């Protein structure tokens, strides 16, 4: 998982803790704390431990990547309209079939 390394370090320092103190409190290795603060990568278990010890929610530590413009796929208005029509027709057919089965 991608974690905001700067936030982790700032929270640790605001408590006056060393990296070793944070590692001991989270029951993780010193190397893991160093990796989190340098690279911003951690397992979900490490994230949960950090959140509990630093008393913050996961969303405060997670770093959500913003997709680049070329990565975002744009769906045309025409395609959206076609999908909507198909969904309405399928929903109507399924609803009609259920009503037919219930009445007979």
Automatic annotation (TrEMBL):
Keywords: Membrane, Transmembrane, Transmembrane helix. GO terms for molecular function: DNA binding. InterPro entries: Cro/C1-type_HTH, Lambda_DNA-bd_dom_sf. Pfam families: HTH_3. SMART domains: HTH_XRE. Residues 8-61 form the HTH cro/C1-type domain. The keyword Transmembrane helix applies. It comes from the Bacteria. The chain crosses the membrane at residues 82-103. This is Transposase, putative. It comes from Shewanella piezotolerans (strain WP3 / JCM 13877).
